[in-house]
Specification:
The protein is of the alpha/beta class. Helix content is 47%, strand content 13%. The two termini are 46 Å apart.
Length: 642
């Protein structure tokens, strides 16, 4: 068998009689896959940036992974989800390994919360950190696994519940990490992970870890991903929002309470507690409660722009909290025992004060500040309105080759929107259509008799249409909504009117709902944005996708509102330059759930007839694949009768 060796061309791998055809159990020659692989190969060789829209079924993961391996350079591959990371490492890499006479030097890295901390596990045997029989039982599973695991990755423990409270007390998050001062540093799973990464040519990460690392490279503690020559982003349509999170700041009441709890617990374990320390901790809690209660807004996200007026009214609440935090810092400086364990606490306390002062000052006009209340938690957020200049400098200007790929990067056949939002100029572009026959496999149905989606009469009429469609499709459908409220209201109406099993997002973990949908004949799943992408259900089980409205971002959302205002102030038209392109990409993602294989067929129904009545609707049609289109329910009936 020929071996995969640096210097051979990807054409030898992907051609009709190439290396891949000899070992892939279901090999199918795909011209688009070869075209993409050659474009990635050329970008890596020429040190150029590349954007590739690769339609569903292209086989894009192998199309970028093989040239990355063959390039002889260290390449970071960043995925949208941990699931895709694991697919690459445990499925695609072993396949390519069959072509190589020597072991491929590939590893994957996840965020710290995915790895166990050996020291915490050992300490838990001596210290009272576990509560209840359930946590003790989970601890026994983790303790036994720790003795044999090579990676420390919790994904290996299939018997551990996803929501395990014990795991959150034993993971390797930075909050309690003493770094090189830890007795287990040499055996630490994070140390091992970094060593593997330093020895690897291909490092597989996810977007959250990538941008956390990129942002951390500006800080004293630096990044954890070794230096690399190139990066490939799969599901690249997500990176604007993810990058914004990590180049911004976030401070919550939960984080503050966790810090106080951790300091108190450490004081008890290391015997440096005192009545004075308890008084200071209680003082911080009380003043934090008063401060967070003084902030405006109710449940959900609320923009915060008038910092000066807030300080005029609530200067005392803010300064009281700040002074109590400074008093706590002084108390920690007086402690002479448990110093190594105290260092992470002192660092977190310093960061808390810095974030609070930055947020309350609100001095950056190019940033958006907002408050989010979720249940008992209050989150203070600030992020750059436009990350394009940051990415242009810190990513595209700093790395020789960046490859962006996704099934949804073009609007109306153009990459302009993606390039503009990400600050990428002069990149090569490639659009690889899906090899599915959408004109025969899919029917796009837009009913013309429904009211305008903004009308109070829309919901009832839309629910009647959903019932009609589900009876024709015999269930087997996703019904996707642009808001949780609309989803719940529609579920209450429709679930009683149909005889098929119904599931609704929020009633269980996402993965469990998907498993139940796949295994339940004729099931119907009601869901919102988190099910619009990254969900793969092949076969007849999913034969209909119904979307209630064109997925325009909520204009009152603080980030969206700020982006709209920024474009308008620059003399642009935010509706055509931002809102329509963003909605067109989201619609492509939602409809992309339906046709996942060459034998799949089904109906895509959009209940928002603005797409066919408003002039801007053509942008959406031009962005979608070449579906067969109808406005007649009779055509839907014929389609399902075939």
């Amino acid at each position: 068998m020929s071996s995969l060796a640096k210097g051979i061309s990807v054409r030898k791998v992907f051609s009709r009689d190439g290396l891949l055809s000899k070992i892939h159990p279901n090999f199918e020659f795909r011209p688009g896959q070869l075209e993409m692989a050659e474009a990635v190969e050329a970008a890596l060789n020429d040190k150029r940036h590349l954007i590739v829209e690769a339609g569903t079924g292209t086989g894009k993961t192998l199309a970028y992974l093989a040239p990355a391996i063959l390039s002889g350079r260290r390449v970071v591959v960043s995925t949208g989800t941990k699931n895709l990371q694991e697919q690459l490492y445990f499925k695609d890499v072993p396949l390519l390994q069959q072509l190589s006479a020597t072991p491929l030097r590939v590893c994957y890295m996840k965020g710290r919360g995915n790895y166990a901390c050996r020291q915490k596990i050992y300490d838990a045997e001596q210290e009272p950190v576990l509560n209840g029989l359930e946590e003790v039982a989970d601890y026994q599973i983790i303790r036994a696994w720790e003795a044999t695991t090579q990676t420390g990755d919790r994904a290996e423990i299939t018997s551990l519940p996803e929501s395990s409270a014990a795991w959150s007390k034993l993971d390797a998050r930075r909050d309690l990490c003493s770094g090189q001062r830890c007795p287990q540093y040499e055996r630490c799973f994070l140390t091992t992970m970094r060593q593997r990464a330093h020895d690897s040519d291909i490092i597989i990460v996810n977007h959250h870890l990538f941008f956390a690392d990129l942002a951390a490279r500006e800080e004293d503690f630096g990044g954890i991903i070794p230096d690399y020559a190139a990066a490939v982003f799969d599901e690249a349509h997500e990176i604007e929002d993810v990058a914004g999170q990590y180049f911004g700041i976030s401070l919550s009441s939960h984080q503050l309470n966790d810090l106080l709890g951790d300091i108190g617990a450490l004081a008890r374990r290391k015997n440096f507690g005192s009545a004075e320390l308890d008084r200071v901790l209680d003082g911080v809690r009380d003043r934090a409660t008063v401060f967070f209660a003084a902030l405006p807004g109710g449940e959900g996200r609320t923009g915060f722009r008038d910092h000066a007026a807030f300080l005029e009214r609530h200067d005392r609440e803010y300064l009281d909290l700040l002074r109590s935090l400074e008093l706590l810092a002084t108390q920690l400086e007086l402690v002479r025992v448990g110093l190594d364990e105290l260092l992470p606490m002192a660092r977190r306390l310093k960061e808390t004060v810095e974030k609070l002062e930055f947020w309350i000052a609100g001095g950056k006009a190019s940033w958006v500040y907002w408050i989010e209340r979720r249940g008992r938690g209050t989150f203070l957020q600030a992020t750059p309105i436009d990350v394009s200049s940051i990415l242009s400098e810190r990513l595209f200007g700093a790395i020789d080759t960046i490859v962006l790929t996704s099934a949804t990067l073009t609007v109306g056949g153009s990459f302009d929107f993606t390039e503009s939002r990400l600050g990428l100029r002069g990149a090569r572009t490639l659009n690889v259509p899906s090899h599915f026959d959408y004109s025969t496999q899919a029917l796009l149905y837009v009913p013309q008799n429904l009211p305008d989606p903004r009308s109070p009469a829309f919901l009832a009429a839309a629910c009647d249409e959903i019932v009609r469609l589900l009876r024709l499709s015999r269930g087997r459908a996703f019904v996707l909504f642009t808001s949780h409220q609309q989803m719940r209201l529609a579920y209450d109406r429709v679930s009683f009117a149909i005889e098929y099993p119904t599931l609704m997002q929020g009633t269980g973990p996402r993965s469990a709902l998907l498993d139940e949908f796949r295994s339940t004949p004729n099931a119907v799943l009601f869901a919102t944005s988190s099910f619009w992408q990254g969900v793969d259900v092949q076969g007849d089980q999913l034969s209909c996708v119904i979307i209630d409205k064109l997925p325009f971002a909520v204009p009152s959302d603080p980030v969206v509102e700020s982006r709209i205002r920024s474009i308008r102030e620059a003399g642009g038209n935010p509706f055509y330059e931002y809102q329509i392109p963003q909605a067109a990409l989201a619609l492509k993602q939602g409809f992309g759930r339906l046709i996942r294989g060459k034998t799949d067929r089904g109906v895509l129904a959009l209940l928002d007839n603005r797409i066919s009545r408003q002039r801007y609707g053509q942008v959406f049609f031009d962005s979608l694949p070449d579906y067969r289109f109808t406005t007649a329910i009779q055509e839907v009936e014929k389609f399902f009768d075939v």
